[in-house]
Amino acid sequence: MMVVAFKLLLFLPGLFVSLKLLALAQEENQFIYHGFTGANLLPNEIAKIHPNGLLELTNTSKHQIGRAFFPFPFQFSTSLFNNSRSLSFSTQFVFAMVPELPTLSGHGIAFIVSPSVNFTGALSGRYLGILNFTTDGLSSNHLLAVELDAIRNPDLKDINDNHIGIDLNELISIESAPVTYFSDEEKENKSLTLTSGNMMHVWIDYNEVERLLNVTVAPITGTKPTLPLLSTSLDLSSVMLDSMYVGFSSSTGAVASSHYILGWSFNRSGQAQSLDVSKLPSLPPQRKPRRKPYLRIAVPAIAAIILFLAISGAAYIIRRKTYEELREDWEQEYGPQRFSYKDLYKATKGFAARELLGRGGFGMVYRGVLPSSNMQVAVKKVSHDSRHGTKEFVAEIVSMGRLRHRNLVQLLGYCRRKGELLLVYDYMPNGSLDKLLFRNHTPILNWVRRYQILRGVASALLYIHEEWQQVVLHRDVKASNVLLDANLNGRIGDFGIAKFHDHGSTPHTTNVVGTIGYLAPEIARTGKSSTCSDVFSFGTFMLEVACGRRPVESERPPEEVVLVDWVFECWKSGAFLGTVDPRLEGNYVEEEMELVLKLGLLCTHRIPSARPSMRQVVQYLDGNATLPDLPLQGTGIGLVPVSNEASREHVLTIPTSSEHISSYSFSDSESILSGR
C-alpha cells in the first residue's frame, strides 16, 4: 500500500500539469470579441479600430486595401495526446457594408484562412487585397476564402453583384450563391443586400469528418437559420497547412465603401461561441441630405429641364445632319442594294481614324461591321458631283453589284450623300496582292498560291467578258486591284473605271484610262478599250506575279526597265527562267512557270487579234489546251511597236508605273478594300 500511495503522489502532479496545459490549449484555440477595443488583433494597410471598438477595414478611399488578422497562427496538426490531424473549425462574425453612393459600392470583404499575413503584391479592386494576376490560382497559395462580393467581375465568373462565394487558392469561386437566408418562420428564402448598410451575421463551419463547409447568413436581428446558404463538399487536406492564420481582407476600387466588422468569434476545436448583439459597437451615423427650401430646388430643376431640352434639340438636329443622305424616287427599284448612311456610320464607328484601311487618289476606305448582320465590310467614301448623270451612274453601280463570281470582290451596295458616294464591298482580310509581292512580307507568297491566284483571276475575267449578261471591261487589271480573301484566293476588285456594253456591240469610249505599264498599245493610239486590252493587262499581271517585280521600274538597268521587254529578251537568249522571282528560291514547277511566262508574253502581243481570249487563257492555265510557240521576233511583243531603246526612252518620260489615268471620279489608283 505504501508503494501504491507513493506512486499515486508522483502521478498526481503530472496529471495536474497535463490538465492545465489542455485547458490552456483550449483557450488558445478560440476567442470571442464584442468590438475590438484592447483585442488581440493585427490591423494593417488602411484598417483601423474606432474608439468604440468598431473595426473599419476600408473607408471611402478608392483603390485601397484593409486587413485584420488574429496575430498568432492556429495549429491544425496534432493534439497533446496523439498525432491525428484535425482541420475542423467554426467562426461567426457581424459585418456591415456602407457604400459611398446608394447604387455603387466597393468590392467587398473576405474571411481568410492563410499560412501567412504577408500579402506582398496583392491588388485592390477585384483581388480583394489577397492576390494579384500572377498569384491568382497557384496551388502554393494554400488559401481558403469566403468572399462577400458586391461587384460582378465577368473575368472571375461572378454570378452577380451581390453574392457569397467559396474560394480555394484563387478568386474564381468553386461555389457561390446570391445572398439570401432561410426564414424558419416563413419557410422560404429571403433576399439580403450586402451594400444596404445594415448589419448582417455570418456563420462559417467546416467539419473535417463529413468534409463539409457550411456558410450561413442572416440579418442581425434573427437567429441562425436551420438551412445554410452554401453547403459544399470540400477536402481541405491539400490546402490547409499545420499552421494557419485567420482574419479578414477588404478592398475598394473606382468606387468605395466603408467595410466594418463589429464582432468576431472563432473556435479551432469546436463550435464558435455565439455573439451577443447587444454588446456590439454601433456604426457611425449615416449622413442625411439636408432639406432645401422650395425655391432652391425648383429653380435649378427648371434650369436643368431647359438645358436638357436645349441639348436634346441640338442633339436631334446634329443627329439628323449626321445621318442625312440623298434619296430620290427612282432609287426605290434599287432598294435591296441601298444602304442607309446611319448603318454605315455606325458600322465604321463614325468613320473613325482607327478604322481607316487606306487612302486612294479619290477617296478613303474604312473597315466596318454592319450592325444588322455583324458582317465585316469595306466602305469606300468618294467624292461625286450628283448633278451629272446621277441616274445612269447609280444604274451602273447597281449593275456591278449583280456580278457574282467567287473571284470577284462583291460590291454589296451603295449610299448617296450630298457631294459624296459610299460604296460597300466585301472585306478582304489579307489585303491586296501587290503588298504580298512587293513589300517584303515573310513568309513570301509561294508558287502554288501564285498559280492559284492567276487561275482565279483569269476565271473572273472570262466571266465578265463572256459569261455575264453584258460584256464588262475592267480596264485596270493589276496586282494592286487583286485582293486576297481569308483563304488567300485572288479576287478582282475596283471596278471604278469599268465599262459595260452588250454582247456583239462595240464599246464607245475615247478616254485613255488605266495604269501606266498595263495599258495596251492600241489604247495609247486610239483611246478605245476592248476585251483584248484587258487580256494585255492580264498578261503583264502574269509576268508581274511570276517575276516578283512591277511592269516598269526606272531604277533598274536600261535593258530591264520594261518587264515585258526584259522577259522577251531573256526568252530569246535562252535565259527565260532567269527572270523568275528570286525569292521563290527555285521552289516552283518549271513547266507551270514556263507556261505563265510564255502566256504572259503572248497576251502582251502588240496586235490585239494575236492575243488569246480569256477563255483560251483559262484553258491553257488549266492544262486543257496547248500553248502555241512564241515568235522570236521582238516587234510583236511589248508596250509600243518601236525598238527597245525607243521604248525605254518613252517609258522613262512617264512618272511611275503606279500613276493612274482615269475618266471616273470614283476610280482609285490602288485598291485598298482590306486591312493590310
Automatic annotation (TrEMBL):
It is a single-pass type I membrane protein. Residues 351-627 form the Protein kinase domain. It catalyses: L-seryl-[protein] + ATP = O-phospho-L-seryl-[protein] + ADP + H(+); L-threonyl-[protein] + ATP = O-phospho-L-threonyl-[protein] + ADP + H(+). Residues 1-25 form the signal peptide. This is non-specific serine/threonine protein kinase. One of its GO terms (molecular function) is carbohydrate binding. PANTHER family: PTHR27007. Keywords: ATP-binding, Cell membrane, Glycoprotein, Kinase, Lectin, Membrane, Nucleotide-binding, Receptor, Serine/threonine-protein kinase, Signal, Transferase, Transmembrane, Transmembrane helix. ATP binds at residue 381. GO terms for cellular component: plasma membrane. Gene3D superfamilies: 2.60.120.200, Phosphorylase Kinase, domain 1, Transferase(Phosphotransferase) domain 1. The chain crosses the membrane at residues 294-318. It comes from Salix brachista. Its EC number is 2.7.11.1. In the C-terminal section; belongs to the protein kinase superfamily. Ser/Thr protein kinase family. Belongs to the leguminous lectin family. The keyword NAD does not apply. InterPro entries: ConA-like_dom_sf, Kinase-like_dom_sf, L-type_Lectin-RKs, Legume_lectin_dom, Prot_kinase_dom, Protein_kinase_ATP_BS, Ser/Thr_kinase_AS. It is found in: Cell membrane.
